[in-house]
């Protein structure tokens, strides 16, 4: 009897050791499966059907028809192009400026904490508030702030919202304004983790501050820069609130009458809730997912090369 | 209530209404007792046996902030309790309601819909709603023909009872008219363009533009003009059999070309309706006319500001047309269908519609024509708009609105057409070029 109790106990012990960890982490995976994986897969399933938003339970099989129809969908291509253009227009200056700001903040500044907090203020602002303000900044007539500023240089009023490039620039500006501070703080944190010995050694070798920045700081920051670039890329793929609110009640949903600042995420919304084609909306959502996977793949490759080169 | 095409493309009224509600809520926070709705006993008096939920959006004017009709009904029917499910955003409301209808549960006992949704309600969703044709008190003769028709399925079931209507007139800026040497008296102004949108654009518009004060335009928007001209047609985007004819209907193409002529003649400023710039245009007197459904008056009053009181006036539109308005429907899934139908009938009966129009100053013009004989409508004047006899102007327009069939994608087509007009106005495309782009866009958008 004593033996069998011991055997049972050891079996229970083994079960405890092998199963308990799984049981403990199960809640996350269950929640992920219910709220992450299932919607993702279900969206994929929906994208293979003709479905109306009005009657989502009634699906007709369409195969890859929703995807092939995108070939001739003018707004889709426009939105895809815009997503990349606005992404570049906002991310590149954003990361460069953030790097420079972080460099300045990394020095001992008077009121350093104040500047750091101030940088986060745009990030903490809701996109709705930001977009509203920028709607006024980029008003078409001379009442808008941007046009007033241009007029000081003798440049006539610009029709921001109707323009092909000016509207993209305006939307990118909102993104730039909101996210630069956030990236600055990430860079700043990474800079402060760079060992001071490296700078001391560089100083002894006679490197100037600028040389130190280029040869010591930036290389040490490479993984962080990659991280912020990925975050910006994914952010661009999800870009919705800024163009939607910039267009206002009239044109937000379309991204302008000529879709000149429509993005992929905005087009998903337009398909799903304006023309009520849930299947087509799901197909575009999956295209966004494919692009995100591709971006992740490329960045993984770059990360691997970075690791090898270090 | 508020006229909104699909997608909150123009949420003008509800968003304002939402602001007003928010302001009211704030005011209430300070005066808790005064806002609970009628002082002590208000809650307990409503100890009815049947509770009816009424889902609506924006300002229907039924609650205590408006005409207090729910309270009156509950007093008349002590066994009924009414709970309003008011939504500030019509698009979100429509999305949620669709889900409830599809799921077969969760819908309110009465659901209000904007007219642009009725193309869906009376076709794809028709089997979800109760036929109200035989509810006591409901009679076809009571409603403006267009209102009755657009609430019906093709087989004749009456799924929606009309609340407000958006008959159109032309609101014009008397200061700018005088400056351009045009008459300013409503009767004389109406005579200038009587009978034809073409005269409106190609005679009056050009005449205004020739002597226009610097930087002003005859029209607030080409899209507004286009929609009104299409709205004057007996057939618009769908024919009587429910087939889309937007591409082949000659009256749509004629409206398009007319909008193109207005743009080419410089009669529009390329401004999107309901944008901030459009709103500020009223305060700055930057356009001479806006084609004006009854509810638009509230926007003019708000946007033009007190300094422009008496500057605007209203004249009869060249041809009758409608923009906006809403319906009450009764979903079949409700537990108290008979009571809900009776309430819907009562809310849309002439005395109640007249009461809403008189009590709620946002221009919910009755669609029940018997209300037009009610002095609260018949004698109504708008003091801000030069004391214009708005009751008479809009009543006369309402009964003459053509009864055009609507279809499932009316909202989408209208949205794309509006974009197309903006392609002419803002991107300076030729009418042909813009038309071609718009036709292919509509085809993409209405293909499932």
From TrEMBL, chain A:
TM regions (residue ranges): 21-42, 84-105, 117-138, 169-190, 220-240, 283-304
CDD domains: TM_PBP2
Residue ranges of every copy of the ABC transmembrane type-1 domain listed in the record: 80-299
GO biological process: transmembrane transport
Claim: Nucleotide-binding is one of the keywords in the record: no
Keywords assigned: Cell membrane, Membrane, Transmembrane, Transmembrane helix, Transport
Entry membrane topology: Multi-pass membrane protein
Cell compartments where the protein resides: Cell membrane
PROSITE patterns referenced in this protein's UniProt entry, alphabetically: ABC_TM1 (PS50928)
Domain of life of the organism encoding this protein: Bacteria
Signal peptide location: none
InterPro entries recorded: ABC_transporter_permease, MetI-like, MetI-like_sf
GO cellular component terms, semicolon-separated: plasma membrane
Family, per entry: Belongs to the binding-protein-dependent transport system permease family.
Protein name: ABC transporter permease
Organism: Actinacidiphila bryophytorum
Lineage, opening ranks: Bacteria, Bacillati, Actinomycetota, Actinomycetes, Kitasatosporales
Automatic annotation (TrEMBL), chain B:
This protein's UniProt keywords: Signal
One Pfam family of this chain: SBP_bac_1
Superkingdom: Bacteria
Keyword field contains Signal: yes
InterPro entries (UniProt xref): Bact_solute-bd_prot1, SBP
Extent of the signal sequence: 1-33
SUPFAM superfamilies: Periplasmic binding protein-like II (SSF53850)
Protein's name in the database: Cellobiose ABC transporter solute-binding protein
Organism this protein belongs to: Actinacidiphila bryophytorum
Lineage summary: Bacteria, Bacillati, Actinomycetota, Actinomycetes, Kitasatosporales
